[in-house]
Amino acid sequence: MDGKNLIRISILLCIFLINIVNAESVNYITLENKFNARMEITDLYVVDLDNDGSKEIIATSYDSKVYLLDSNVNKIWQFDAKAYVYSTNAIDLENDGQLEIVAGSSRIHILDFNRTVVGKFPKSDPVKKIIVGDFDLDGSDDIMASTGRIRKHTIYIFNNKFEILWQKSIRGEFPWGIAMEDLDNDGKNEVIIGGSEVLIYDADKNMVWSFKPDGAIGDLIVDDIDNDGKKEVLVGSYPNLYVLTNDGKIKWEYKTKAKVESIYVTDLEHDGKKEIIIGSDMAYLFDDEGNLLWNFETIDDVNSVHSGDLNWDEIEEIAVGSKHIYILGKDGSLQWEYEPYRAVGKLLITDVDNDGRNDLVVGAFDHNVYLFKAREIYIREMQSYSLYKEAEELYNEGNYLDARSKIEEAIGIKDTLGVGKCKEDGEKCDSLLQKINEKIPSTTTTTTLPITQITTTTSMEETTTTTLSKGDSTGFIIPAVIFLILLVAAIFYLIRKR
Description:
By secondary structure, the protein is of the alpha+beta class. It has 7 helices and 32 strands. The chain has helices at residues 3-25, 376-397, 400-417, 421-424, 426-439, 460-465, 474-497, and strands at residues 29-36, 41-47, 56-61, 65-69, 75-80, 87-91, 100-104, 108-111, 117-120, 127-133, 142-149, 152-158, 164-171, 177-181, 190-194, 198-201, 207-211, 217-223, 232-237, 240-244, 250-255, 262-266, 275-279, 283-287, 292-296, 304-308, 317-321, 325-328, 334-338, 344-350, 359-364, 368-374. It has a 4-stranded antiparallel beta sheet. The protein has a 4-stranded antiparallel beta sheet with strand order 2-3-4-5, with no helix packed on it. A 4-stranded antiparallel beta sheet has the order 6-7-8-9, with no helix packed on it. β18 (217-223) and β19 (232-237) form a beta hairpin. α2 runs antiparallel to α3 (400-417).
């Protein structure tokens, strides 16, 4: 290898390492653990099966297995269904407060927490979609299953005694969209089916109405998106999102550039106004009137979307599963990104271990179930800037007691974790606290803790092992760059001397 090539390689290595450090410094979510099945993960369901206060993860796979994982995605057991397993859910079969697992394969299997088969239905076409609800409104859970092969499909609804309550065969595209909801507010559930078209039946299998979209349906949900007491049917097809009224009329629609594979309705800011998230050729966010708030371009088509508060600011983040995993802010800004070996099939934001903080659970086509957790040190750092700003605003408004509470919390983050606004600009924080205290009469009593007593739930181990956040990464980057420059210079000197 000649000197010029060696120098080029050294420079590229320098740039590569700097980029790694910079990329790592902004990550506030970390991979906690992962579980590997032998084939693609087809479905996920997260629920506390044994009522111990910590949730379990049910994962299904093309390796014919149902996996029960604990809250850290360690395997508790696996069940061999003897055929591909496509879908899963949970049901309180005996109305005793104890949930059982429902798994869809070449038949429906029902398993208790100890892996005992407590029910199974006769063999059928592949059971690719399962939902659970009270169809006949008798107070007990029922199972709705979508089964089928090429262009011939059957929808079943079973009660907890494994009796068929409702059954209908349809033709066309596979009915990925199924629901049982009371659309007309008459106290009886309708059956909603979305395959090649949207079909609405009453409990006696009479057609209520139908709707023909432009293409095959990828997802379908029912929700009262505008809180007017009337439910809408949201239909994701190729290549449109349709929002239909409860009698089948188009309320609004939006054209994308691929099939809409995933729809999720939420209230991101908890302000009483719902938003609609969809995954198609990219991720989109709409308000309840159909106005596009933003779209976010992904590397590949989006298979799954979900939302939940990951950084403890009481505003939900949006999770997008494509070739990469993306976490977006409510304004569509990219907050975090991760690339699994293959694309994401399904993701969920939920508090798996019931510690009061949401986690991210992902099932991917690379055979893995991933568990991600938020880094407290980073999030507390980001919170400190908000706390300082709030303290300033409250001070200017004359609300001195609340202002003092905010600034003391920001200072406490600096004292306990060594990061944040008051670490970077301690004089400003101390000055603001002093100004606030001067405005509070000496006779005023408060329960605010002294700064030295402010604690955080972050353990010493977490504080010392967490990767660098924005506030403390610079101290590592500068020495690393200097070292690499010196290394390149030394190599160049040795080559010239030679």
